[in-house]
Fold Claudin domain-containing protein 1.
Amino acid sequence: MDNRFATAFVIACVLSLISTIYMAASIGTDFWYEYRSPVQENSSDLNKSIWTDFVSDEADEKTYNDALFRFNGTMGLWRRCITIPQNTYWYSPPERTESFDVVTKCMSFTLNDQFMEKFVDPGNHNSGIDLLRTYLWRCQFLLPFVSLGLMCFGAVIGLCACICRSLYPTIATGILHLLAGLCTLGSVSCYVAGIELLHQKLELPENVSGEFGWSFCLACVSAPLQFMASALFIWAAHTNRKEYTLMKAYRVA
């Protein structure tokens, strides 16, 4: 094996490993989107009601999003979290000069939640099904796992190529990484579109802002790494095979 191809193969493997780690971290963390809102210090009846509804298994889309808006919520592919005061009062606490303790309460999305229909008017089951948001949500949930699976399958093929001491099977690895990159890019695009459509239907309250979090950024970085790894795998395998064929033809001649 030519040193050029071996170097390209090693670089592609490193890029593939980094992108796999980034993608796995992105899937497993809860910071795809973050809301910033004024901290609620007192435990009013309204706040208590929102907290109770948030941790309920029957919370609908509008219910948990209202809590995310009010209490510095974060959302991932699997979980949603809010930040609330650790010590709550039934009255407004006295004026303070020091920061107070807060705790994070999280609820996981069940499989039923992931595949549940989204409604035209969030929270209103009589408003009809919003097919676009429904399938965007399902794609943003499924595509990252498809991407991760394709990269793992590609890694198995790459390992077999090393055992066989041949670069040619890595063309399949490159193609799988290309498909994985497309899945990751599709997941990111679906997530952005879903968030924008949600905010068109549920406007953010005053003094509340939202931004994409670092989990989302990891997924965004993972996609170009997958594309670069794919290009190196395919280039190394194809060029090495071509040179081997030419050399064999020259020896025969």
Notes: The chain has a mean pLDDT of 83. The beta strands are 33-36, 74-75, 79-85, 102-108, 209-212. The first strand starts at residue 33 and ends at 36. The two ends are 22 Å apart (CA to CA).
